[in-house]
Each structure stands twice: as C-alpha cells, then as structure tokens.
Amino acid sequence: MSHAPLASACAAVLRRDLTLAWRRRGDIVMPVLYALIVITLFPFALGPEDALLQRIAGGAVLVTMLLAMLLALDAMFRSDIDDGSLEQLMLSPQPLALMLGMKILAHWITTALPLIVIAPLLAGMLHLPTAVMPVLVYALLLSTPLLSLLGAVLVALTAGTRRSGMLLALMLLPLCVPVVIFAAGAVAAAQQGLPWLAPIAWLGAALVMALVLAPLACATALRIALDA
Amino acid sequence: MANWIPLWVHKLSSPPNFYRFAGIVRPWALALALITGVIALYGGLVLAPADYQQGDAYRIIFIHVPCAWMSLFIYGLMAVASFISLVWRIKLAEVVAMESAPIGAAFTFITLVTGSLWGKPMWGTWWTWDARLTSELVLLFLYMGVIGLYHSFEDRRQGARAAAFLAIIGIINVPIVHFSVNWWNTLHQGSTVRILGPSKISTDMLWPLLTMMAATKFYYIASLFGRVRTDLLSMESGKDWVRQIAEREGRA
To answer: Where are the transmembrane segments (chain B) (predicted)?
Structure first.
C-alpha cells in the first residue's frame, strides 16, 4: 500500500486546520478581545498613574497573553476528538508527532499570532516606551510557540477527560513559570537600558528543545489519554 | 551469580505479594519513624545549642529542612515510579507513584508553612518572592496538578498513566528548586549540609537533622505502604485474593 508523501500530508493537515479556523473567524477574535479587556482592567485596578503602569506594562502584557492562550488551548483537540478525526490521524501511516506538530503550528497561527499583532497596542495602552516594543515582540515571538507546544502536551493529556479547563490551568501555569520569567526579564532589562539578549537567547534555546521534544511528548500523551 | 534478587523483586511486584509484604513492613517503619522522630526532636529542641545569630528560633529547621528534602525526594521517586509504570506497565509502580503524590504534597505544604513561620521573626515577613520559596510553591502546584489529573479520569489506570506522564514532565522543576539558592543570590540562605565534603553546620545540630531525615523517610514508607495497601484492595476488588482477605477479616 502506498501513501501520500510526508510533506503533502503535513501540508494537508495544516491547510485543513487553518481552513477550519477561518470558517469560524469569530473564534480567532475572541482571545484578542479577551486580552484587550484584561489589559483595560489594570488601570482600573491599580489607578491611572503613568509611572506605575509603565513599570508593570511588560509583565502585564505577558501574563495577559498567557491567560488568553490558556483559554484558547482547551479547544485545540476538542472538535477533532468529537468528530473522530483525531483517531483517524492516529491511525494514519504518517508519524503522529509530525502531524500534531502541524496542528500545533496551525493553532499558534490562529491564536498567538493575532495576539502578537496587537501586543504593541496593549503595551502602548500601559505606556510601555516605544523603544522597548521590539524586545517585547521578540520575547513574544519566542515565548508564545513555547507555550503552545507545552500547552499541547498537557491538552493531549486531558483529552480523555470531560472537565479539563481548570485542570489545564493548574497543570500548565507552574510549567510556564520559567518562560514568563525570561520573557518578562528581557522586557524589564530593555526598559532599564540593560542588555536583554541573554534571556531572549534562553527562550530561543528552550524553544528549540521544545520544538524537538514537545510533538513527541504530545503524541505519547494522546496515545495515553485516548486508548486506555 | 544468584538470580534470587530479580526473582524476588519480580514476585514482590504482584499485588497480593506486595500487600502482604507492606503489611509486615508498615508497623516496623511506623515504630522506627516514631523512635527516631522523638530522638531527633529531643536532640534538636533540647540538646542542641542555641544559634549564635538566630537564638532558639532556628530550631524549626529540624522540621523544615527534612520536610523540604522529602518534598524533592518524593517527587523524584514518584517520577521514577511513573517512568517504570509507563514503560513496563507494572500496576504496582502506578499505585506507588499516585499514592506518593499526596504525601509529597503534604511535605511540601509543611515546608512552606514552617518556612513562613520561621521567616516572620527572622526576615520580618511571612512570604517573599524569593527564588527558593517560589520554586517550592511551584512544586506544590505540580503535585496538585498530578493529583488533579489522576482524579479527573473515569478509568483509574488511564488516569494513573496520564498523571505519571505529567509527573515526568514536571521533573524539570526539581533541579530548579534544589539549586535555586546557589543560582540566584536571594534571601534564602545557602545550603549548609553537604554530602561530599564537610558540612558547614555544627555536629550538635547536624545529628538531630540527619536523624529527623531518617524519621521522615520511615514515616514516608509507613504512610505510603498503608495507602498502597488500601489502594491495591480497591483496585483488585474483584480478584480472588482480595475476596479471601475480606472473608478472613469478616470472620475475625
């Protein structure tokens, strides 16, 4: 029996997921709106002093991003499990880890990329200096895929359970602590005029490791969660 | 070479054999935990001299430090048992891993509480965002995640396998907790007890600490074996050996 070459299988999975997301454009806007609302709550909660908001801007944007991505993560495999297409993917002759990697990529494009696009706006609302914006974007470009990859493994673990929302937060947030520390550390360093390359490099190193390991772990986790 | 050791281990990992073995070991472990615990407390609270800097307040370390060691030790053991259960599908390893989690969480909780009780008179604050305190708190969340995931599945063996996988992923935090005082120079003091080379602590204070460490280990064994016994009974509730035990206990 012959089957489709790997590259075209990957492209097919990616195209399918992106098409599905595009058909439900409303869902893509949700995390963005959520992040906007959370950011507007900060000045209300802390008072509208520019200096204070400026100091917390980087960290607040990062945490908001993390929470927005957390909300979107739950849906990563949900519809595929409900309509059985995930089982089909697991039965396909292509390596599951690679197929899942494509799904994670599609998920990152549809949830994290819009968030990164509006991140400068969010940071601007909290008066983050314009000079620091590029560092924030670099940090987000490296840390959001890391969160997507880590999150995918944990979502896969909860795939067999019914109530997973809160549990997902409990499992993911502790593992995200280093990511948040390094990403916020880079922004804070840039804000104080210090060299910020080291934390960015750490994020990059972690991302490379996660790119290799997380799809494999995700495949293992799905097999554990779905076939008893 | 005698091959009775692997054979013995192999036999022990069957639930009825381990049930019996744990039943024999448990009272001894509990007794040893009590004895060493009392000796360590007497040595630590009465015999050991007051610290030249901290006075008597430092004595909480005789609880705090052994519990902190246990919080990491149990996590490591849980991860190893998890690995064994995922690779070789040994039922007993699953049970050991999952029943270790609540005990480890309890030790982590005690570590955090005693640390904060000590922090108030010494640092003037209950809590600070110090590297070691924070990473210990993250350790508690990791334990909670493992316990939560385990209980969220309807099928317990499936839940155990998923939670075991999470436990293995979470092990990255253990070296972070362990080395945090050396990596980040924050409020928490550096480590004073060394395995290699001389410790930076007086012998009068060291021996109660090490005795307490033994006590917590014995307590862990007793607690774990008790939990594992109960769990094995409920997991194997349809099996013949459980029925035999139930009938025997019912008659007695």
So the answer is: 28-48, 60-88, 100-119, 131-150, 162-185, 205-225
